[in-house]
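A reminder before we start the practical. When you read a complex entry, don't treat the lines as separate problems. The point of joint prediction is that each chain is placed relative to the others, so the output describes one connected object in space. Small molecules and nucleic acid strands, if listed, are placed in the same frame. In the example below there are two entries. Take a minute to note the order of the lines before looking further.
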Amino acid sequence: MSTTNAGLAKKLGYTNIRVFLDGEPAWSKAGHPVYATNTFVREGNIVLLDLRGDGSPVKGRIPRAVALPYDELDDRLDDIPRNAPVVLYSNSKNETMEAYLELREEGFKQVSLVKGNYQGWVKAGEPVVKGPIFTNEIKWVRQLGKGEVSVADFRKAVAGELPNTFVIDSRTKDEIAEFGIFKNTVNIPLDEIPKRLGDIPKDKRIFIHCSSGARADLAYQELLKHGYDVKFLLLDITDPSCDCEIIKP
Amino acid sequence: MQLTRDSKVLASALVLTFLLTGCATPPPDTSQATKSPVQATQQKQNVYTGSVVGKSNKAKTISISVGKDDQAQTMMVKFDDNTKGLNFAEQGEAAIITWEQRGEDQFATEIKPKLAKLPEGVTEIKVDEMYALVENGTSMTLVDARPESRYAQGHLPEAISIPVPKLKKMGEKALPKEKDTLLVFYCGGPT
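Here is the predicted structure of the whole assembly.
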């Protein structure tokens, strides 16, 4: 994209164009900060952490922020969902940066900062809330991505409670021989899907699962291309929330 | 765009530009895709060029997104122990997959990374220089070329968001008036 834009700018007559080809991943990997837009901080599906430990969150904080003093960050790492976008702020640039680096080092991939820290937020005229804080619990629910079926709907389908639905298990035959298969489910391994389209009804809604969701996603793409009404389950099927009945081999 | 006797050459150059584009996801494109469809089809016979959607070692398949916008399709090929360059089939990376038909299946024979090439006269910035430019407050327009959602989640200091489709639509209105302004573009990494 950057080179495409550079090419377009060149055609528009710009004469001093450069490209940072390694881009944002190289930037954050080198320990440099990235910033969220204020809109994203207000409205995004994020975990927003207020790192100030001096009691100031009570006097004013960004709406939806969870008070998590920097000193307690180490102890509460496990409370922060790893696939959530995390946005940080405090009063001190150094403190915010240290938390940013620590989270990145711990493997959090989507961490960013509030522009200008808390002061920058206030200065930009963005909303603040004040008053006592009743909970420090981090509540975050992942939103379903494109093509994903909810676990609830999937459970209904394999329980036979969702009419007009055809469930495909895209794991290999060996995996099924070893682990079993859900009820009301047909096994079509991912690599066989292109040549077994005849076995997949066009007039039904299709759900696909595998062991983690990776192959199901690819199978979903394949069926989408052939005009199916299809969704896939992005879940480790050993996850307790699945709780679907298995027919053992 | 003016029609000159060079327009054919220009059209080919455009196609080439898009084949060599420098980011993990192929840029959505509407205006140029139609310029030279025949040429593109011929080039792409038994070759899939695009962004790798995923690879399954268990099913021994690779899925790759080919084509632009509405025409984008995810193609699935199988691989085996003889497939060369399997390490280049990483999710999100741009790759060129050469394949052959075996019975009902398409088998990848070789996978190559699709390398980014810069337009002539455009130079690359490495991360340390980028950092220096930002820290020194160098006068420039820093442009994040990724989709707006990625920009919203996290972008470089002072960067503005101009995804490729926006620049195509708005042209110079999206950029500073002075044509000699230092413009720096970045996205989600080269491939």
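Discuss with your neighbour: Residues 1-21, 25-44 of chain B have pLDDT under 50 and may be disordered. What might explain this?
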